[in-house]
Every structure is written in C-alpha cells, then in structure tokens.
Batch of 3 targets.
Target 1
Amino acid sequence: MQAVRSRTIRRMRDPRGWLASLEPLAPDLVAPFRALADDRPLAVRREVRRVAGEGSVGRLLPQHEAVADAFEACLGSLPDAAFSMPGGEADWTVAEALGHAFESRQGLALAAALAARGRWPADAPIVVPGVPGPAGAGRDELQRRLARSRRLVERASRSIAGHELDSCPLEHPLVGRLRCGEWFVFAGVHDLMHLEQLAALEAGLAVESVAGTRRDFATPPSRRDVP
C-alpha cells in the first residue's frame, strides 16, 4: 500500500508524467502540445508548421496510432462509474469529452483529406467548436467510436500524403486556417488535450483509492476547447 501511495504522490507532483511516457512514441504531436500547455500560442503554430512539412504524413500516422493506443488503454482501465464523472471540459462528462475527441480527430483528418483531393464542398458547414459527444455512451460504445476514428484517420492519411503543403479551406473560429498537413498534426494536438484531462481523472481516482475516501480531484487548467 505504501508503494502505491508513493507512486500516486509522485504522479500528482508530476502531472505531465503521462506525457513523458508518450513523447518517445509521438514526438511531433507532443512538441506543439507542450507549447499549448505552456500558453505559448505563437509557438504552437510554429511547431505545427515545423513538423507538418512535405512527406510528414508517413512519419505522423504511427504517432496518431500511439495516441489512439493511449485512449484505448484509458478506456480499458477506467471504472464504469468514471464515464459519468466530470470530464474536465466545461460541464461535460467523461463520456461526452471522449465522444467529442474521437469525432474531432477523424473530422479534422477527413477535412484535410477532402482538400488534398480537391473535393472541398462549396457548401461545407461552418465549424462549430465545443460540441460534446453523447452523454450516455459507455465503454463499449466509446471503444467502437475510437476504432472507427482509427480507420478514418488512416484512410485520410493516404489522401493527405504528398499534399501536406496544400491549403485547406477549413476555417475554424478559434484556430483560423491551416494547411492540410498542419490539420493532420493539430488533430493529434487536440487528442492530447483530452488525454491530459483523462490523466488528471485517473490521478484523482488513484488518490481516492489510496485514501479510501471519495473527494473532488483536480482537473488540468481548462483551455478553451478547439475542434
């Protein structure tokens, strides 16, 4: 029990410990996220552009897979009750935040793929940021949504490859416009925002388990959600 307590305390003192373990597997997604977490918006765009150059998709796709693996691990380890707990984003539950994250990761990649193929629809809807996923989704439903997002991100990557520097008409009210390859990167940055919230949730649950009590736990500082 003492060993568990010590690990929990170390994790709470190092709230980005989860990021350090993911960084070797997804360095090009973690770099702009670190700038975002440190509240350096200009550095975010600089890092996104740096890693999203010509031919970058082949390097980035395995990194997206690593991030999806991290989501999968969280889905498998969270207790059933956690999905109705606060998700760290506005007043969303964990289920709503995860449903939103999985929809956004595939949506951003597919938008970039459409632009890369020259098939951007003239009547494309305006992006509405901060739309939660379904509140009633449980573990099985969220695992299906994650699996679907994996397939669609992989499919989109084939179209974006070789067109990373092409412009994309997608206009986001908070992010503005990015190139096709840059949207592919930013989809991963957005994923990490929600993984950070899950890490805070897991740390809080671990503290409850060690202490044997039920209490509120800290969530990461809320950055206004993007996609």
Target 2
Amino acid sequence: MLVLDCAPCFVCPAPHGKDMVSSRSATIATLSSSFLAGLEPPAAQAILATARIQRISAKNNISTEGCRATRLFLVQSGRARFYHLTKHGELVLLAWLVPGDVIGLVTIVKSSLHYMATAEAISDCEVLAWEHSVIRKLASLHPLLAENALRIALRYLQTFINRHAGLVTKTAEERLAETLVRLSDQSGQFRPEGIEIHATNDELGALADISPFTASRMISNWARTGVVSKGRGRVLLHAPEALMIG
C-alpha cells in the first residue's frame, strides 16, 4: 500500500494550557486500559501526563489508513469504528472502539510505518495523543508498555482468527448472536429492561459477516420470542444468555 504523507487526522485541539492530562482528567476507562495494565499507579499517571487531550467531532477520522503513523491514541470518551476500505471502495468494519481502546499501536515500532486501518469517531470523542517519539521513549522507560501493546495486537489477531473460523464452522445465526453478546460486554449500556447496544443492521451484519437483510430478519425473529427489542439504531438484549443456546 502507498504510504501517504497525510495532514493530522484529529481536529479541535483543547485550548492552550488545558490540553495536558491530569490525575483528575484521566477517566476510569483510561486508567483501566489494557495498554496500562500492570503498571504501578505513579508510572501510569506519569505516562498519561505526557499525552495531549484531543477532541474529535463525530464523523471525523482519528487516524486514516495509509497515513504515516505519527501518533498513538487512547480513547478516553465516546465511540469510534475501526474499518478498512477495499480497492473498490467497500467498507469492511473491523471493530468498535470504546473508552480504554488504543489506536496506532504501530507507533511502538522504531521505523516509520502507516496506519493499517481507519478509526472514525461515531460520536464526539476525546482521545489522548502521544507523538511517535514520545511513545517510543515511554516504551523504553516502561517496557511493560511494549508488552501490553503486543498483547493487544495478539488479542486482535485472535479475534480475526475466530471471525474467519466462524465463517467456515458457524451458521449466520450463531455469528450474529456472538456479535451481539460481544458488543453487550464491550460497549452495552445497562437499562432496567436489559442491555442496550447502539448499532445498525448494517454494522451488526458487517461484524457478523452477514448481509444487513439477514441481520434484520434474525433480530426480528428474536424480537418475536422476547429475547431482544429493536429500535432505530439500537438493539436491547433482554436475555443475552438465550442467544447462545442452540
């Protein structure tokens, strides 16, 4: 792939003097991110203190596939999607990104690489950003950062292995059920009547590797049995365990 020399992908930097991370501004999701796993609190706070806060408006890119990877980002609030564009312009949804997730792990590598996929803000997001040179120095001072980055990369690899294997060994219904349960664990919001997931039929179908029509039909079938309820751009799981039976 051609490596593009892109302009910065983020927008709306915080006002001067208020764009550094403090112990108060770091969220629980940030502090519990797997990128910082195993670090002592003072070390984690020192790492966060070197980041700059960037605010990304919905529908803007945090990183763009093919651009040089000059920054590592950690999502502090909001939601984003991680996707790949084929040479024919088709969007392949790879994952949802939620608070605590990291974008641009390739910046851990010494040589200049490019972002492997695009991260686009679905809602207004706040991210922490480290320049390539800064994150490299931090990884040298705190080797656990590089180890955590490798663990995250391996987790993504395992996810894609499971997803590919599911295409061969599982039915469309099983794949969609697993996608709903996974999203409920990752980004679901607890409501009195169940767990709410914000996702369209197109997005659910893309993550389950089925068509939007098939996703809509299966969710409608589950809705008739009371397992889920469907609204515009959202699904409410009343009994997630029931989806995994069968």
Target 3
Amino acid sequence: MSLITLFLATAIIFLLADALMLRAVIQPVFARHLGDALYPGGFRLLPAVMFYLTYMGGVTYFAGWPALRDGVPHMALVNGAILGLVAYGTYEFTSWAVMRAWHPQIVALDLTWGVAITALSAWGGVMVARTLLG
C-alpha cells in the first residue's frame, strides 16, 4: 500500500507540474527552434503515457522508495536530482549530438527542468505518502 501511495503521489505532483511547465514555457521554446519537426497537435498519447509510467516507476523506485523506507525524506530530493540529471541529460545530450535543429537553449531549459521536477516530485511524493500513511 505504501509503494502505491508513493507512486500515485509522486505521479500526480510530476504530471501537474509538467503539464503547466510544458504548456507555458517549454513548448514555445521547442516550437521556436524545431518548428515543423514537432508533432502536429502537440504530442502522441501512447508514447507520452509510456514515458510517464516508466519514469514515475523509476523515480519511485530509485528516489522516493529508499527515502520513504529509511525515513529520510531529503534523500528523495538528492536522488531525484541525480536521476533527473542522468535521464534528462541522456535525452538532451544525445538529441543535441545527432539533431541539426537541437539548440543549446533547449538543452539548458529541459535539463534544468528535468532535474528540478524529478527532485521535487520525488520529495513531494515522499512527504505526501508520509502524511497519508502516518
């Protein structure tokens, strides 16, 4: 039960924050630099769902669960930041290396966001789970 609570709390925090940031900040930057290379209509639903389920599983397992299990919430923040750097860094640096239109502004923005949202959602998920589970 605690693992499910942690997963759901982390996912809700991540999804809400990501939806706001993607719409308000990230999408316009991507559109400016990538233009017609972006998918018409915003995104494909199935790959988006696959990403969020996979990534939330990783954030829960590698950052949130150890912190919740050991009673050290701030470790979710640290481990989440590291995981965000590795995951978003892999995507951003690979894209920058192989795609002509991938701009350094995209790399800086998305990498910074990935580190921040992963760390904060992992920590927030632990705090919510601790509150709900007592």
